[in-house]
């Protein structure tokens, strides 16, 4: 039995786990403001807000409902555009869109309004860059975006005096959200939630599964509930970081320890999908998908990560992530094993990390080629190297030969040029929609050089390499 609040209404529903939140909202509840666009998490027309209790406090995220399994909102508050309406007037996000001519055909407008309202709910330091980032998962084919950016700027101005100690009350008083939001936290606390996972298939965020197997899901047994809070934790012990499997990219992009330990961490993760997908897509799901161009797979391979696999009998084993991929979509795991932990060592004063990605558009796109490297040096000697590259073979490629070649070599232009030849011997790209073999080999070369140019700019110069 799934229990949650949809706008103001408590929902009790015995629904198959393969039902998406989008279909339930539109077809079961007839709330048609949430639109069906791409059904792949790209367009943002189906964006809703999801509020959940974290350490007793209500927190909201934006999410693409087309990729959200209905059981994943168990015990939460789901807000559609209808749930943001004020009696007799527009809310601040709606009014800003009207005042700035931010809508034409209107199909995308509910998604933008939800994302803008989500920013009003979550912003701690309202600023235009953050507000624009909050709508990065919403696409409009009419306006050219400038009018929507002006509407977002207007909303940001109105948030400057937001009371951070009592945000919900302030937002209600200033016409950002309706009054019923004041009771949601207490109403969720009154829920008597039950979880049951015995004999059923667990799902992470659903952001891969619902894209790849949308039609097949109708015949799959996914009628389950489990408490993801038990698997959503980032912990640190010394120089080691451990991620539980339900950690999302948004959890990582806002983690202060990681932001401090890895320069440009925020900018790297902004290249991974969009805000609504980062909010719900799990790191373990990205790894288990087995995509040859999974962004986090490449990133974690270059950090020499290890994963823990656990079966239904709660028996666990650990293995290096680079031993997890055996062939295209073939994984080193049994059918009943799931990823429960990912562990990696943080870069230190001797090590440097860099991530590069090229795709047809800068954001919200799958890479043509992506790559990451961690390089540890002592003086001008490379004492350890871990690198990975995606889009150049049937699996996410850990560059074992290239890393072995670089180890104990002097950091120099000549060594890097030789290493690039070793790199090319490891690659086996194919021509597809994202580029020809020749193009991908060229990208591999340029991005490999980019790691050293970015990390060792005092020693390695672009003109010497190209």
SSE map:
Elements: E1 2-6, E2 9-13, H1 21-28, E3 47-54, E4 57-64, E5 77-79, H2 92-99, H3 109-122, H4 128-134, H5 146-158, H6 167-173, H7 181-189, H8 209-212, E6 234-237, E7 240-244, H9 249-253, H10 256-261, H11 265-270, H12 275-280, H13 283-289, H14 295-302, E8 306-310, E9 316-320, E10 325-327, E11 330-331, E12 338-345, E13 351-358, E14 369-378, E15 381-390, E16 397-398, H15 400-406, E17 409-410, H16 413-426, H17 437-455, H18 462-465
Parallel strand pairs: 1-5
Antiparallel strand pairs: 1-2, 3-4, 3-5, 6-7, 7-12, 8-9, 8-12, 10-11, 13-14, 14-15, 15-16, 15-17
Helix pairs in contact: 2-3, 2-5, 15-16, 16-17
Please give a handful of descriptors for the protein shown:
20% strand, Ubiquitin-like (UB roll), five-stranded mixed β-sheet, globular, five-stranded antiparallel β-sheet, oxidoreductase, 466 residues, 3 domains, DNA polymerase, domain 1, Uridine Diphospho-n-acetylenolpyruvylglucosamine Reductase, domain 3
What do these coordinates show?
The chain has about 475 residues and is of the alpha+beta class. It has 3 domains: about 1-85 and about 180-220, Beta-grasp domain (Ubiquitin-like (UB roll), Roll), CATH 3.10.20.30; about 90-175, [2Fe-2S]-binding domain (DNA polymerase, domain 1, Orthogonal Bundle); about 230-465, Uridine Diphospho-n-acetylenolpyruvylglucosamine Reductase, domain 3. The protein is about 35% helix and about 20% strand. Helix 15 runs antiparallel to helix 16 and helix 16 runs antiparallel to helix 17 (about 435-455). The mean pLDDT is about 95.
């Amino acid at each position: 039995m799934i229990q949650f609040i949809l706008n103001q209404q408590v929902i009790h529903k015995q629904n198959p786990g393969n039902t998406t939140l989008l279909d339930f909202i539109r077809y079961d509840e007839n709330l048609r403001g949430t639109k069906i666009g791409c059904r792949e998490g790209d367009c943002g027309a189906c964006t809703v807000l999801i509020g959940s209790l974290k350490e007793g406090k209500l927190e909201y995220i934006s999410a693409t409902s087309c990729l959200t399994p209905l059981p994943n909102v168990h015990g939460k508050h789901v807000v559609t555009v209808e749930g943001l309406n004020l009696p007799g007037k527009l809310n601040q996000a709606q009014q800003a869109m009207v005042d700035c001519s931010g809508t034409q055909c209107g199909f995308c407008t509910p998604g933008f309004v939800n994302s803008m309202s989500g920013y009003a709910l979550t912003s701690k330091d309202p600023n235009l860059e953050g507000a624009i980032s909050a709508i990065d998962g919403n696409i409009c084919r009419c306006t050219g975006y400038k009018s929507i950016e002006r509407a977002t700027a207007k909303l940001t101005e109105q948030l400057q005096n937001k009371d951070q100690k009592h945000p919900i009350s302030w937002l209600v008083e200033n016409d950002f959200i309706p009054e019923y939001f004041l009771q949601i936290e207490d109403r969720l606390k009154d829920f008597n939630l039950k979880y049951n996972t015995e004999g059923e298939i667990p799902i992470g965020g659903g952001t891969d599964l619902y894209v790849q197997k949308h039609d097949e899901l109708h015949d799959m047994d996914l009628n389950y509930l489990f408490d993801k809070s038990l698997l959503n934790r980032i912990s640190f012990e010394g120089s080691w970081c451990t991620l539980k499997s339900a950690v999302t990219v948004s959890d990582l992009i806002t983690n202060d320890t990681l932001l401090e330990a890895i320069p440009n961490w925020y900018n790297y993760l902004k290249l991974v999908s969009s805000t609504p997908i980062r909010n719900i897509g799990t790191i373990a799901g990205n790894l288990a998908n087995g995509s040859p161009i999974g962004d986090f797979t490449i990133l974690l391979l270059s950090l020499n990560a290890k994963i823990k696999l656990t079966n239904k009998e709660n028996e666990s084993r650990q293995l290096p992530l680079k031993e997890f991929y055996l062939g295209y979509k073939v994984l080193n795991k049994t059918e009943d094993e799931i990823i429960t932990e990912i562990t990696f060592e943080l870069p230190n004063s001797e090590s440097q990390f860099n991530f590069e990605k090229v795709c047809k558009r800068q954001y919200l796109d799958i890479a043509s080629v992506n790559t990451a490297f961690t390089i540890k040096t002592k003086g001008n000697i490379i004492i350890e190297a871990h690198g990975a590259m995606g889009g150049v073979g049937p699996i996410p490629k850990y560059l074992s030969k290239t890393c072995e070649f670089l180890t104990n070599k002097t950091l120099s232009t000549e060594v890097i040029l030789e290493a690039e030849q070793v790199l090319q011997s490891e690659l086996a790209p194919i021509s597809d929609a994202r580029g020809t073999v020749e193009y991908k080999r060229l990208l591999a070369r340029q991005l490999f050089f980019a790691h050293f140019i970015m990390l060792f700019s005092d020693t390695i110069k672009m003109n010497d390499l190209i």
